[in-house]
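Before drawing any conclusions, I needed to go through one protein's amino acid sequence and its backbone structure tokens, quoted below without any editing.
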Amino acid sequence: MMLLCLKRRIFIVFYAYRYENKLLIKVIFFKSLIISVMINILTNLKVFFADPYLLLSNIYIFVFGALIGSFLNVCIYRLPIGRSIVIPSSACTSCGQPVKWFMNIPVISYFILRGRCDTCFSSFSIRYAAIEFLNAVIYLLLFWKLGFGLEFIGWAIFSSCLIIIFFVDYDHWLILDSITFPMTIFGMVFHTFAGKFSFYDSFLFLLLPTFEKTENQFVLNFLDSLSGMLLGYLFFALIAFWGAVFFKQEAMGGGDIKFAVLIGAFLGCDKAFTAFLLSFFIGFVFVIPLLLKHKNFSKKPVPFGTFMAIAAFIVIFFELNFFSLYSYP
């Protein structure tokens, strides 16, 4: 059922893309994405009902994730334009009327209001509900994978950060320092105390053999995070330098470089490198069809932070590590 829904979504989006109906692409994609994930969750409900505690735990995590998702919408809308994310309260972007608390229920309110303001009846995007639902599902997936603990809290915060960066970069081609700087510090602290750095699964075994004498896991995690930050900076700074010197244009923005440092702080050196490679692959898959269709597309800026955010989450969830394919003696 999940596969059938996925195929149907890809076909419809391709049809809409072919006829350049961007609005149809957005509406169909987000609606079908929500439906497909709901089908996947409903197929596993019998397992949850068998254990009331497990059922309640999943409901709490989902609701909490949706509430945080509602806050993410505020950050995505207000941070790029320099508005406070605390005050004033949420309001209609058309008439400015504050949203009543009972009309501000994550996900559900969109369908109750049928996507319209209850005062001026102007429509608002389904993306608000989609982001709330997406964050709730991500929290639920992390809970299924990790259980509730320090790891879950850290990766949940990072995942929400990825959502903010994804949509802000998609909308404004901008990655905010107000997000990357504090999250980089948090990522370094989190990786130091909750990381699972394995010396023998890392290419640092070849570069810095003196690490082998270090038995303190916290020190290893800190060095792994620090080396990930350095790798992220050098990797993308060199790409930016290469583009400026040889192609006389900006190949990588400063925000992308800072985002790479943030990813390195959270993931460590090996997984960050895996995420960087994966982000270029995702970008390649996305850009090549557009280059074939629009000859002048190469001159347009591409929000590369969106690809980096997707790649980072994939690495988190599937625990991908390029260097773990090899074993060291």
Notes: Residues 154-329 form one domain. Residues 254-293 form the longest helix (40 residues). The radius of gyration is 21 Å. The CA atoms of residues 91 and 98 lie 4 Å apart.
